[in-house]
Design goal:
Elements (H helix, E strand, L loop, with lengths): L2 E2 L2 H8 L5 E4 L1 H14 L3 E5 L6 H9 L4 E4 L2 H10 L4 E4 L6 H10 L4 E4 L2 H13 L8 E5 L6 E3 L9 H14 L2 E5 L4 E3 L3 H17 L3 E5 L22 H14 L7 E3 L3 H4 L3 E11 L2 E4 L8 H5 L4 E6 L14 E7 L8 E9 L7 E4 L20 E5 L12 E2 L7
Parallel strand pairs: 1-19, 2-19, 3-4, 3-12, 4-5, 5-6, 6-7, 7-9, 9-11, 11-12, 14-16
Antiparallel strand pairs: 2-13, 8-10, 13-14, 13-18, 15-18, 15-20, 16-17
Helix pairs in contact: 3-4, 5-6, 7-8, 8-9
The structure holds pyridoxal-5'-phosphate.
């Protein structure tokens, strides 16, 4: 992989017409260390956030020994990057054949569920393989409520009384049992985890079975940009959230249980930026070579404002407008699809024009993992960059990618 000091060096050297992912391994190492140092338990990186081999390899070398996985392809990626690592199969709803593959081929011994039919599926494979249930830990996924950019409890999780019953059922079979929840992604208030812990406490007291662990899931927010026209939302920092989580865990009496967290976004967001090119400026519109079907779908659906930096093309001789004035530009994606328009503008100097580049920062989470081949566009060019996005000179303008809905 080619290496550069900054993304601007990469853009001006390569003059790329395709989107370029700028990987910052040192930032990834820092962010995973920061998380592992602050969380008082086992850190299982959520592979779906960014399962690129270079990410998994870097995390494994940085000391990550467990991974949250959801599919056979994720089992294989983790095995290839970190053959000794433990995998936690935390998808609550699994295909029977995938459960068999997990237990038989990959030696996975930790699984999550939120329904009795899933218990039956797992038990069928355990019996067929003649495994001892006490070697297997089943985490019962609890419903949670809170405010996150993505609410996941609408889709998964057992209501508290149902969770009690599932814990007892699994315990009576002979499985080790634990409780898990996932509060959604990019949480907006530190109280979110406390509400989930209160609910876990209620379930634990009613179930009255020995618990083997508590898994607090992911959801820890990454740093993004903000729309200059709006008041900046006060986002809790990771340190604040962790301090609060640690004291809530102690207060609700979970401090003696083995703890697990499954961070994704907070670990990998800062480790990548993306260089895109302005293919055409048409009035106040910029047509770029990426979009919602490639690297920008997460920011679109999650109402996330990504920070952006302007990289003007020095080959352009004439420019119009005042370079000091920051204006809003509507951004159209690369595909022919008419929904492929970022519904909030990018904020850039008025001089931005056809042929210029824009570096979009903090793009490591849910970008390459969600890109599609729609219309034949598939960003897949990577370079390594040494300087963190936030240290590469002041961000000139902001890319505001919030959805129309808000
Ligand atoms: C997606 C997911 C995660 C990671 O979430 P982040 O918000 O990226 O930290 C963790 N656990 C489960 C069960 C998930 O589905």
């Amino acid at each position: 992989m080619q290496k550069f000091e900054t993304a601007q060096d990469a853009a001006l050297t390569l003059r790329p017409d395709v989107p370029v992912y700028c990987f910052r391994p040192e930032v990834l190492r820092q962010d995973i260390r920061r998380f592992m140092d602050a969380f008082p338990g086992q850190t299982a990186y959520a592979v779906k956030t960014n399962g690129e081999p270079l990410v998994l390899n870097t995390l494994a070398k940085a000391g990550v020994t467990s991974f949250d996985v959801a599919s056979p392809a994720e089992f294989a990626s983790v095995r290839a990057a970190a053959p000794e690592a433990e995998m936690l199969y935390m998808h609550p709803i699994k295909a029977q054949s995938d459960i068999r593959l997990a237990l038989e081929t990959y030696g996975i011994r930790v699984l999550a569920l939120d329904h009795e039919d899933e218990v039956a599926k797992i038990l069928r494979i355990v019996r067929a393989l003649d495994l001892d249930p006490s070697a297997i830990t089943i985490f019962v996924r609890l419903q949670t409520k809170g405010h996150a950019a993505y609410e996941l409890s609408k889709k998964f999780g057992a209501a508290p009384a149902h969770a009690v019953e599932l814990l007892q059922r699994c315990h009576n079979i002979g499985f080790r049992v634990g409780l898990c929840f996932h509060v959604g992604s990019q949480i907006e208030e530190p109280e979110t985890y406390e509400r989930a812990l209160a609910s876990a406490d209620w379930v634990r007291n009613r179930a009255d079975v020995p618990l083997a662990g508590l898994d607090v899931g992911g959801g820890f927010p990454a740093e993004y940009g903000h729309d200059p026209r709006r008041k900046k939302k006060a986002m809790p920092s990771l340190d604040e959230i962790m301090a609060r989580l640690r004291s809530d865990i102690a207060e609700w009496g979970f401090g003696d249980l083995p703890l697990v967290a499954e961070p994704g976004r907070v670990v990998v967001a800062r480790a990548f930026s993306l260089i895109v090119r302005v293919l055409l400026r048409k009035g106040r519109r910029l047509y770029i070579n990426d979009g919602i079907w490639a690297s920008l779908s997460d920011s679109w659906t999650g109402k996330i404002t990504l920070p952006a930096r302007f990289i003007p093309d020095p080959a352009r001789r004439t420019r119009h407008g005042n370079p000091e004035t920051i204006g809003a530009f509507r951004v159209c994606g690369a595909t022919c699809d008419s929904v492929d328009i970022l519904s909030r503008p990018f904020w850039l100097p008025e001089t931005v024009d056809t042929g210029d580049w824009i570096e979009i920062g903090h793009i490591g989470a849910y970008s390459m993992s969600l890109r599609t081949r729609f219309n034949g566009f598939y960003p897949d060019t990577f370079v390594e960059v040494a300087t963190p996005f936030g240290e590469g000179g002041g961000a000139e303008g902001f890319a505001s990618l919030e959805t129309m809905a808000d």
